[in-house]
Amino acid sequence: MEILAAIAIVFVLLTLFFMGRTVRCTRHGRILRASGSCISCIASLAIAAVALLLIFSYASYQRLTAETVISKIEFRQTGPQAFRARLMIDGQQDRLFELRGDEWQMDARVISWKPPATILGLDPIYQLERLSGRFSDIENERTELRTVHALSESQRIDVWAVARRMPVLLPGVDAYYGTATYVPMADGARFEVSLTRDALVARPLNDAAREALGDWESVAP
């Protein structure tokens, strides 16, 4: 992070320097020098903008080191194929979500780094994105009301979104979703959700969760 901040500061100063030089050269009729300074100004501004984008996103995401426990989730059945999910994240207030169906899924955005960004020494980062329910019966899935809840507020400046839509602008950023599959919901079931470098893993914490999973010891939700 310190390296990114230093890069941002240096190139912001360079941007201001070349901007002032462009103005001075233009006033004195030195068009060729003004053009060169203008190009340098734009290049410096672009690098500063990328550095600031990375700083902002790195601060708003969570660091991912090895396998990380990111949440616990508990279900209470409120009706036929209807559940109330209690999402518990350390350092945050518990949140309640209404889910319909037989199974649940959690998605996360993950950012890892590849050359040339690896020289910055940054850890992979993640942000929980959504929690959803699903009906195991295909016909119900087509006709019944689906439930999907956002777990993070949308951001105007997000390196993950930029890297997904315009990867050529951020060649050192690898943005992807944590591997997701669906897990059965059951009354009283409680799960621990961990995130590895490429997958979300749900592990049962009580008998209700173990019975819901059957023979599965752990699954990627």
SSE layout and pairing:
Elements: H1 2-27, H2 31-60, E1 62-63, E2 68-79, E3 82-88, E4 95-100, E5 103-113, E6 125-134, H3 138-143, E7 148-150, H4 159-165, E8 173-177, E9 183-184, E10 190-195, E11 200-204, H5 207-213
Antiparallel strand pairs: 1-6, 2-3, 2-10, 3-4, 5-6, 5-8, 5-9, 6-7, 10-11
Describe this structure in words.
With 221 residues, this protein is of the alpha+beta class. The protein folds into two domains: 2-60; 64-213, no CATH class. The protein contains five helices and eleven strands; from the N terminus they run ααββββββαβαββββα. The strands form two sheets. Strands 1, 5, 6, 7, 8 and 9 form a six-stranded antiparallel sheet that branches. Strand 3 (82-88) and strand 4 form a beta hairpin. Helix 1 runs antiparallel to helix 2. The longest helix has 30 residues, at 31-60. 27% of the residues are buried.
